[in-house]
Amino acid sequence: MTTTCVVASWRSTKRRLEIPTTTYRVVDLKRKIQEEFDIQAPVTLLYAGRKLLDDQQPVAGLDAEKKELHILVLATCPEKIQQIQQSKSDPLMRPLEGRTSHGGRVGPWRKRSEQPRLHWSCVALQGFPDRHKAQEILERLVTERGVVAVVQKYNLSVARLTEMYPHGKVGIDPVCVLGLNKGDEIELRLRTDDLQGFRSYDKILQVLFHELAHCRYKEHDRAFYDFMNRLEKEAYEADWTKQGGRRIMEQAPSNNSESMMEDRRVASSSRDGIVLGGKQSNESPREAAIRAALLRHHKKQESQEEKK
């Protein structure tokens, strides 16, 4: 009987499998791989950088000319799935998904050797051909001037920043987590649902601020959101002033008259110590203007998401 050699890679382990050439389908290969690696969860197979979506496709038909078929196995261990399912979702955190702000690329990479850097270890998921791009995103996050400033100011204790496997589909599956704070480690979801690209850098950055706030507050209460907003605002301000106007987000605030009037209204209310709800505010006019710009930025992003 003619056989085909499949080299299956899962995490740091490789196995050579001899399978019947004529009868084996993708679904049969999945079962075989689950048995060989003792994987209790559903598996996803990647060949030549693409998902094998058709379970009925003959394995031999993937590439008849190659003597060996190198298959990348993706699976989430039961412990990880349980951890994600038990983590509380934030009802006020909008599902964040989309392409990168540069048409599929994850931003123009700049030299950051002379910039301050958080002493966190950055770990991207193994097994992806574009793992280096995920590593670059993580490295970019730990050298963001604003992020460095707020982490150091509030002494937020984090040792590792790691890439999270994209379990579930954003906005569709009831269990879909974009980030986790595990005490000394923060996990961030970097990849899109189809694993073919990366989520917008701005959106990844927003999730990072969310997880940093969990360093102080566990529950999604008023104190948590106040602290999260403070982190984002102060990071925004630090990056803006130290880099001559370059913002921590990719899109600059609008300079139209309506936006300027909104800044003035917020700043004026702040000077008088009056905010919505009758509570007092200690914000300076400059801080209030920055907060207004942040609010506009988020509203604009929400509007763009709704149009997609």
TrEMBL record:
Region Disordered: start-end pairs: 88-110, 250-308
Organism lineage string: Eukaryota, Rhodophyta, Bangiophyceae, Galdieriales, Galdieriaceae
Protein name listed in UniProt: WLM domain-containing protein
Pfam families named among the record's database cross-references: WLM
InterPro entries from the UniProt entry: Ubiquitin-like_domsf (IPR029071), WLM_dom (IPR013536)
Molecular function in Gene Ontology: proteasome binding
Domain (WLM) ranges: 110-298
